[in-house]
């Protein structure tokens, strides 16, 4: 923008006056007031920016607490890292932004390919002892099950036995009753070829 452009409206020798303007409307004065208001607003923003920049170069403010902007930045970083990899390709083919930090994942530690036989033996024995622990045995043994926790999920058994129709339909089928629909499928009518 050139230096003269903001004053162009003030220096025009002919200016259109709105139809609803006052009798003493001065377009030059109006343009000058608008320009001065813009200049004042820009100056106020410039001073605010300078004060914020002079607030310190560290992450903490004068009172030792993190500055609000830095605290918000720390709060957003994990969310941003998650959103980067939430695509089908896990962010592998996405464009990187300028100044974007590399996402630090969890370091995977691999066991050496060759290790002593005693270590493998100990690991196998530990696995077997965990598989045969009392906690697992008590879940399988019906005698060890507490009285308030039945071993059979009754609702699931009824649903399976009645093919999803419920306990009432299971009772009708056991009693030999036809129930609703005449026992010929869902339609209840003749239906189909004979």
From TrEMBL:
Keyword list, A-Z: Nucleus, Ribosome biogenesis
Localisation per UniProt entry: Nucleus
Primary localisation category: nucleus
Pfam families documented for this protein: RRS1 (PF04939)
Region Disordered, residue ranges: 1-125, 166-194
Regions of compositional bias (Basic and acidic residues) in chain numbering: 25-46, 59-75, 92-123
One of the protein's GO biological processes: ribosome biogenesis
Compositionally biased tracts (Polar residues): 76-89
KW Manganese (keyword) present: no
Gene Ontology CC annotation, any one: nucleus
Cleaved signal peptide residues: none
Family: Belongs to the RRS1 family.
Function, in words: Involved in ribosomal large subunit assembly.
Name of this protein: Ribosome biogenesis regulatory protein
Originating species: Mycena albidolilacea
């Amino acid at each position: 923008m050139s230096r003269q452009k903001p004053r162009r409206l003030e220096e025009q020798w002919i200016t259109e006056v709105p139809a609803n303007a006052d009798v003493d409307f001065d377009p030059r004065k109006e343009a000058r007031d608008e320009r001065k208001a813009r200049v004042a607003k820009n100056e106020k923003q410039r001073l605010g920016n300078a004060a914020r920049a002079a607030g310190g170069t560290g992450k903490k403010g004068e009172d030792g607490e993190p500055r609000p902007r830095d605290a918000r930045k720390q709060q957003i970083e994990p969310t941003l890292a998650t959103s980067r990899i939430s695509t089908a390709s896990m962010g592998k083919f996405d464009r990187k932004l300028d100044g974007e930090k590399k996402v630090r994942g969890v370091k995977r530690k691999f066991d050496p390919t060759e290790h002593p036989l005693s270590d493998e033996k100990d690991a196998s024995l530990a696995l077997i002892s965990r598989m045969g622990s009392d906690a697992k045995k008590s879940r399988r043994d019906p005698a060890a099950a507490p009285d308030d926790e039945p071993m059979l999920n009754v609702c699931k058994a009824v649903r399976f036995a009645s093919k999803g129709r419920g306990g009432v339909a299971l009772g009708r089928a056991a009693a030999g009753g036809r129930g609703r629909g005449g026992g010929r499928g869902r339609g209840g009518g003749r239906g189909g070829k004979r």
